[in-house]
Amino acid sequence: MRKFFVVRLSEAERTHLQEVSTTGRAATSAVLHARILLKADQSENGPGWIDARICEALDVSRATVERVRERYVLGGSRTP
Q: How do the domains of the chain map onto residue ranges?
């Protein structure tokens, strides 16, 4: 399935999301969203996992992965 919202993180964004996901000082949802974005990263340095693999690894629904990716690409306020 073709993705409409492709995540491509810069080094600064990746560093920020890694800090959010590892420091333990953010809300649980922010940590989860950061981990989703890091796995979905399609940039040169990103793993570029497919949604099904992210869902399995993080135990979330496909809709959650799609929603987080969409919010990030559109610049939504709920990204970490």
A: 11-74
